[in-house]
Amino acid sequence: MPDSTSKKPPRPKTPRQPMPEQPAEVRIDNFDEVPSGYTPELAVTEALRCLLCKKPRCVAGCPVNIDIPGFIKLIQERKFDEAARKIKEENALPAICGRVCPQEDQCEKVCVLGVKGEPVAIGRLERFVADCERAHGDVRLPKCAPPTGRKVAVVGAGPAGLTVAGDLVLLGHKVTIFEALHKPGGVLMYGIPQFRLPKEIVEAEVQYLTQLGVELVTDFVVGKLDSVDELLAQGFDAVFIGTGAGLPMFMNIPGENLVGVYSANEYLTRSNLMKAYLFPEYDTPTIRRKTVVVVGGGNVAMDAARTARRLGAQVTIVYRRSRAEMPARIEEIEHAEQEGIGFELLTNPTRILGNDQRQVVGIECLRMELGEPDDSGRRRPVPVDGSEFVIDVDTVVMALGNKPNPLVPQTTAGLEVSRWGTIVADEQTMQTSKPGVFAGGDIVSGAATVILAMGQAKIAAKAMHEYLNTLPPGKDRQG
Amino acid sequence: MFRIVEKTEPVPNTHLVTIEAPKVAAKCQPGQFVIVMVDDRSERVPLSLADWDAQAGTLTVPVFEVGRSSRKIAMLQTGDHLAHLIGPLGRPFPIAKHGTVVCAGGCYGLAAIYPIARAMKQAGNRVVCVLEARSHYLYYQHDRLAEVADELLFATIDGSRDRKGHACDVLSDMLAQKRSMDFVVAVGCPFMMMLCGDATRSAAVPTWACLNPIIVDGTGMCGACRVTVAGQTRFACVDGPFFDAHQVDWDELFHRQAAYLGDEVQAVGQTDAPLHPHHHH
Questions:
Q1: pLDDT at residue A394 in the model
Q2: How does strand A342-344 pair with strand A314-318?
Q3: B84 to A182: CB separation less than 8 angstroms, yes or no
C-alpha cells in the first residue's frame, strides 16, 4: 500500500485478514461450516488495524449499536472472553450476528479505514470472540435486575423474539417465548443452512437465554392454541409479536405444483430443521436430486443453491436481472460461484414442464434485458421476444421471498395490519395499534435481515420496559 | 413430552392413539388435525383427530401404518411418550344445518369422520354414515358412529358386508333411489374421496373432502401441501384441510403424495419396516 503524506487517518500497514475456509472442492461434499474463523493471532492482527476512533461511525452503523471499538480494544489486549461480554451488553447473539449480518452494508460500510482501503473485519472479530467464549465454556451470565413482577409473552423464537427476550429478562421481567415449531431459532434454524450457521451455535445462544431465566415453550402455535388476546387475559402484561415472514411466494406460472417444485422455505426446512440431508438417519425424506434450478437472486436463493450442490446436484440459479442487482450478499454470490453453481442472469421462467407422472423435467425461460429504473431504483427487466429456451431439470426451487404469516394478525382483535399483511407499528417504539402489544422483525418490515429484526426488537424491548414501568401495581392492565 | 394414555389396534395396521395434551385438547374443533413427532429425528406427521376430551385433557388420533414414520408411531405403546405434538391445526370444518348430511369414511377416516358426524348431528341434521372397507373385518369405530348417526351403511370391496363396492357406490345408490342428500363430507384416502365427489357431481350435492397431502410445518410456512382447487393453489394446512371435492385436482394430489415413495422404499429397506401399497384398486 503506498504511503501517504496526509496526516489522518493514518494508513494501516497490515491488510484486512482473511478467514481460513474450506476449499470449494472439499466443502461441496459436506455441510460443515465454510470459514473456520480467525485464529487468536489472526484476530489480534486484524484488531490492531482498528484506529479505535473517538467518534466511531461503526457504532452508529450497527442496528443494535454494539460498542465496536470497545470490544476490538479488548481483542487487541487479548482479552477475548471480556470482548465477548462487551458485545453481549448490547447483543445477546454475537456468534449468530458475526456470521449472518451484512456487515458490508452496516458497521463496516462506514469504517473510516474503508474510505481509502479495506474496513476492519468487524463481523469476523465478533464471531471470533463469541466462539472463543463458548469454546472456553466460560459463558458468564450478567446480573439480571431485581424481579419487577411483570410478565411478557414473546410470540416466535426467531431473531427478533430472542432479542426482545434477552433484553427484557435482563431488566427483571418474567419472559416466556412461544414457538410454533419444535425447535427455537426461527429462520436461524429452518432457513439458514448448517454450513453458514451451525445449528449447535443457535442452540447455544438460545440456551444462554434460558440460563438467564427466559422460559421457552415450543410446539405452541399462537392463534391456534391461545391467541394474543388470551395471553393478555391470562396475565401477561405485554406481548411482543415476532412471527416473521413465513409465507412463501410463488410465481403463478404453469407447472408450479409439479412434483419436484419447492418453495425455498420447504427445501431449506427439510434440509436444515428436519435434517433431510442426513436421511435415513433422520426420518424426513431426502431431497437429493440430479439437476436443480433455483429461481431468485437473494441470500435465500444462494442458500438453497449451495444446499442442493452439497446434496450432489448440478445447480443453476435463474435470476431476472443482472448480477449487479442481485440482493444477495456479494460474499454469498462468490461462494456460490466458487462451488460451481451456474448463473443464468437476465433470465425469467415462463413455465415449468412436467412428464405424465407430473414430475418436473424442465423449466422454460425467457431472456431479459434491462430497461428504465423501476420504483426500487433498479433497472427493470424487459423480456426479449422469442428468446424462450428450456433448461432440463428434475427440481425447481422458488426463492422469491416471503409474505408475513397471517395467523397472528388474523386472530388478534384490534391489531392494525397494512395492505401487505404486515403489522403496523410505531418506528420509535414498535408499539402496535393494540395497547400492550408490540411487534418487530419481518412481521413488521416485510422480509429483511436478521440484524434489522434484532434492531427493531431492541427498540421494542426498550419501549416495552417503559410501558411495563408505567403500569399500575397489581394485575391491572389497560385495554 | 406427550404421554400416550391408550393405544389400541382395532383392526390390522390401523391404530387408535390417545395422547395427553391438555392445552391442545381444550382447543380442538371438528375438522382440525395435529402434527406429531415421536422423537427429535422424526418427520412431522399430520394426523386427523378422531376425538378429544377437554376435561380429561386428551385427544385421540387414528394412525394408518403406511410407511416408515407411521410405523414408528404405531410401534409405541401405552405409557410411551411422543417428543412433540403441535395443534390444533387447519381450519375447523363449518358445521351448519343442511338437512340430510352424509358422512363418508374409509381407512383412517372411519375414525376421523366421527367429530364431524357428531357435530352435524348436534346441529340438527339427519346424519347418514357411509363406511367403506376392503372386507367386513376391517371396520372399527362404527359402534361410536352408530351413537350419533341416524343410519349406518356399509360398503365392502370384497362384498363381505352389505354393498359390494366403495362408499361412492352407496352414494350413487342413494341418489338413484332419490333419497335425500343435502351435503356430503368424505374423509379417507384420496381415491375414495375423489370417487365420492364423482358420485355426487351430476346431482350437484355439495361434497367436501379432507385433503391429506404431504405436510412439513403445518402452519403455512413451507407450501409442501399445495393443492389446486378450482384452478387456484391453496395450502391444505392453513386454507384446509377441507375443500370442495368437485373442484380438487385429484390427479395432482395423487402424484404429490407419492413424491417420496422411492425414498420411502429405500428407507423401509434399511429399517425393516413393512410397506403397504396404499389403496390402489
A1: 95
A2: parallel
A3: yes
